[in-house]
């Protein structure tokens, strides 16, 4: 892997400054601003981890809620026996194991079949957990009592955000990232040039799932009481897809462009129009598909190419005159 370019160093320094600035929000912002910032940080990690796999492969995964729920339950089950940092790692390992099983079983599928399976995965896991708690425990849910407050959750999410961005950047410049881009462009060609497509897809799916599981673990103290409907909420899967596609997956930081405005929009909709949230999500899907198929960053890239083309045409016209 080659050394980072000057442009990449500039982006890294800028990102570090932003992280430090966001980390200071608890000292200067109100409770509402802090809560909104936590939501933005959460979806930033979720969307970046989702785009790590779905971006280059073009496989639309709706399994986010399943991995997220596994992470929250890992904390709920082990909080009395293991330190919280260890539980976050355990949550990532459990989500990675689930992603490996699912990946081996389903990543030979493509298109709508893969989407449908991953959508049903969260519901399947939710029903299994509900059945287990109903028959073998005293209640359907788990208490998660810790000393963590909103600012602690924010700082942990920011640390995980830095890690997921670095991992995504490293993968994009590795042989695995190159292989995934070929698979995304034409999987048949990838097989013909000797790429083990099944292994590559499963490996990246596992890495993505692990990060999502760790987000669920970090957010568990925020819930205080974890139960299947909240832990395995399929709405999380849909919102992650919308935010990532809105921002665009052609850049590592692309999903962030979609996370910030959509998180603010959903926060306002939940507060003032709680019964109309599905309508907003449906309209957002339609808008992305028909207006911004490559996201905001994709549109910006297309406009940049168009501007260069106009400059070239104008320069040639000037020389001709």
Mean pLDDT metric:
86
Biggest β-sheet strands, sense, barrel: 2 strands, antiparallel
Alpha-carbon distance between the termini? 47 Å
Radius of gyration in whole Å, from Cα? 21 Å
The total of beta strands comes to 2
Which H/E pattern describes the elements? HHHHHHEHHHHEHHHHH
Uncertain regions spanning at least 5 consecutive residues = none
Helix content: over 70%
Strand order, sheet with most strands? 1-2
Shape: globular
Q: Strand fraction band?
A: under 5%
What kind of oligomer do you see? single chain
Describe this protein with a few key phrases.
mainly alpha, two-stranded antiparallel ribbon, 15 helices
Polypeptide structure, described:
- By secondary structure, this protein is mainly alpha-helical.
- The protein has one domain (6-235).
- The protein has 15 helices and two strands.
- The chain has helices spanning 6-23, 25-28, 31-57, 64-78, 84-106, 112-136, 150-172, 175-185, 187-192, 197-223, 228-231, 234-247, 254-272, 277-290, 295-320; strands spanning 142-143, 225-226.
- It has a two-stranded antiparallel sheet.
- Helix 3 packs across helix 12, helix 5 packs antiparallel against helix 10 and helix 12 (234-247) runs parallel beside helix 15 (295-320).
- It is globular, with a radius of gyration of 21 Å.
- The termini are far apart.
